[in-house]
Amino acid sequence: MSATMTVTMPIARPLQPPVGSDIDFGAQIDNIDLETLTDEQFAAIRKTLYEKHVVVFKNQHKLTPKAQYELTKRFDPVSENYGHGKTIDAKRSILHPDLKTVPHQPQVQIIGNGFVPSYEGLKNVQLRHPHHRTFHKDHIPDEQDYDFTRFYRWHIDAALYDLYPPQVTTLLAVNVPKGRRQTLLYDDGSNETMDVPLGTTAFVSGQRMYELLSPEDQEFVRTSKIEYAPHPYIWMSPARSRSTGLGMHSEGLELPDSELPEIDQKKIMVFPMCWKNPESGKLALQIHPSAVRKIHCADGTVIDDLERVRDIVYKLQRPAISPQYVYPHDWEDGDLVLFNNRGVLHSVVGAFKPDEVRLFRQCNLAASEPPVGP
To answer: How many CA atoms, within 13 angstroms, populate the side-chain half-sphere of residue 251?
Structure first.
């Protein structure tokens, strides 16, 4: 770079939350070329991410899958493989119908809804937006499907078996249906609802989730660990979710170990309940509620009754998904959302008509190191 050239540094501004919102995270950065980031520009973006957890870049229509992968990888240069690895027994995994791989950039996945005749080397692709009727125990009546919706599944992007959870995820909106909004129902007796954009991605802060707890519960989550089920997305496949999308009903429907792919005990993941922010050192309550199996307590005891484990986790997490703490992103074509996968939970939302085409690119990479606890 010549001495006369100047580098445009990213300028972050807070997201504009909905009226009545109490979110304390999120930023937007305009006018930055993500294809040609300098080290200084990336350092500023990284700092913003770990302060604000969700960063929106506008007008990224021309971003290539290669550049999206390289941006994602920059947060963990040793990482290489897609965050869920090679899907074992894909037909039974609950993730199987929702993902297509970019042939020339296999770490980048295509998600969305509707028929796409051609995109990035893929031909005649039929995309299926996850719908809560396929995963929840009960669902909104079909005749109300386009007016009302739910959180599909609150989660962290992570295999939770063999591979460490990705540091970050990038989501690029290539094509977004516009026009309709939906009323999101919690349907849990709380009477809580939200007005949401069609097909929003909803985010909540794990840091706020921790801060909302009582001092006693904060002590519990700081000193306890979660053990995840082996091959969790196959294990949970016959079971059904709560209406809030926050964890599962306990009806004994999970697959026994004998019906799962071969289990290597060394690949079963046990993580702290709280993960430390690499910049601020603040703690985030980061638990994938659908995949939990056991709780390891500070005194060495293990809670292995699945219904009790789920009830404990639900009571810890539920306060932070109330409407005032949720950021539902209103997608526009060309939006790239970068989020701290070790500091937020997120959920797919919405019900599309068959002819409403939604096309997104997603990239996350299995991390080179496990999350750091308190």
So the answer is: 13
- Residue-wise DSSP of 42-86: HHHHHHHHHHHSEEEE---TT--HHHHHHHHHHTSTT--SBTT-S
DSSP class of 251: S
Domain 21-364 has CATH 3.20.20.370: no
Amino acid at 87: T
- What does the DSSP assignment read for 101-154? E-TT-TTEEEEEEEEEEEETTEEEEEE----GGGTBSS---GGGTTTEE-B---
CA R_g for the chain: 20
Backbone angles phi, psi at 158, to 5 degrees: -170, 140
Task: State the DSSP H helix or E strand holding residue 237, giving kind and residue range, or none if neither.
Answer: none
Mean pLDDT on 229-241:
97
Nearest-5° angle of CA 203, CA 206, CA 208? Answer: 95
pTM of the model: 0.96
Domain boundaries, the chain: 21-364
pLDDT digits (tens, 9 = 90+) for 158-213: 999 999 999 999 999 999 998 789 999 999 999 999 999 999 999 999 999 999 99
Nearest to 155 by CA among 287, 330, 333: 287
Which pairing describes strands 27-29 and 54-57: parallel, antiparallel, or unpaired? Answer: parallel
Q: 370 with 228: CB under 8 angstroms?
A: no
Which pLDDT value is given to residue 179? 73
Residue 102 clears pLDDT 80, i.e. is over it: yes
The contacts of residue 125 (CB under 8 Å, 6+ apart) are: 100, 110, 115, 116, 117, 119
